[in-house]
Design brief:
There is one protein chain. The chain is mostly beta strands and about 260 residues long. Helices cover about 10% and strands about 45% of the residues. The protein is built from one helix and 13 strands. Strands 3, 4, 6 and 7 form a four-stranded antiparallel β-sheet that branches. Strands 1-2-5 form a three-stranded antiparallel β-sheet, with no helix packed on it. The protein has a three-stranded antiparallel β-sheet with strand order 8-9-12, with no helix packed on it. A hairpin with a 2-residue loop joins β1 and β2. The protein is globular and about 115 Å long. The chain starts with a helix and ends with a strand. The mean pLDDT is about 85.
């Protein structure tokens, strides 16, 4: 074969190889899809389908349902019922936002009187302090002192989406001190909050619970602190119109900071 013929064959081979590589690349691109956390396939380093590993969703076998520690109706005045509740997120490294809940009020015969629906955030923390969340709903029912006997709070586990999260990553103001006055007449609790971060906190909701010697909630309230300056303090005042049903043994105070 002449040199020109060999050259034509070489050129044709190079062109053919190039076209084949382009064809294979297009074919692979059309068939292969980059693994994602929403593709319905257990790939990457996932522990289950679209969960665990690099995916933010916590796999079902690792999830622990939240626990309602208590929910209690409180007669803040002669005909007004408030609700205070505490929920525990048992997951140390998983959180959930906008979790739907339902509170139901019952009479002495366990007949439902009213239901209230709402949303709450469950930050990571497990049995540590950060894993507990307070829910306070004022003036939920107009009633005589004995009409509302009990209440329940329900969270449907299937409605909760758990995502991997570290505890205590939010900027939460701390209680510097508090003072209780007028406990036998019209209780008042003055609280000073401290912000140790370089960011000013705005419109911070705070819930307070007073408990008796047996750990039962005897009063609750909430307020909004307009501003807690960076590296500064701010006051909050909680008042009640009548004495509590028992002496205060413990006070629990929780700023409500939304999950990011």
């Amino acid at each position: 074969m002449s040199w020109a013929g060999r050259r034509r064959i070489l050129i044709a081979s190079i062109v053919g190889a190039f076209l084949l590589s382009v064809f294979v690349s297009v074919l692979i691109a059309s068939i292969y899809k980059t693994p994602t956390c929403t593709d319905g396939i257990q790939n990457q380093d996932e522990n289950g389908v679209d969960c665990g590993g690099v995916c933010p969703i916590l796999c079902t076998p690792l999830q622990r349902a939240p626990i309602t520690l208590f929910v209690r109706p409180l007669m803040s005045t002669e005909n007004r019922v408030d609700i205070i509740a505490s929920i525990l997120n048992q997951n140390n490294f998983a959180a959930s936002s906008n979790v739907p809940y339902k509170i139901t009020l019952y009479d002495l015969n366990r007949r439902p009187l009213k239901s209230i629906n709402g949303l709450l955030d469950l930050p990571a923390g497990g049995d540590k302090e950060g894993g507990r969340v307070f829910v306070y709903i004022p003036d939920v029912f107009k009633s005589t002192p004995t009409a509302v006997a009990s209440a329940s709070l329900e969270i449907i586990p299937e409605s909760v989406t758990w995502v991997h999260a570290q505890p205590n990553t939010r900027n939460i103001p701390q209680v510097r001190n508090y003072v209780v006055t007028k406990e036998l007449v019209a209780p008042r609790i003055d609280v000073t909050f401290s912000n140790s971060s370089p960011k000013t906190l705005v419109d911070t909701k705070v819930i307070i619970i007073a408990l008796d010697a047996e750990g039962n909630a005897i009063a609750a309230s909430q307020t909004i602190i307009p501003t807690i300056p960076a590296f500064g303090d701010a006051p909050a005042i909680f008042t009640w119109a009548k004495p509590f049903s028992a002496p205060i043994a413990t006070i629990e105070i929780q700023p409500v900071i939304p999950l990011p």
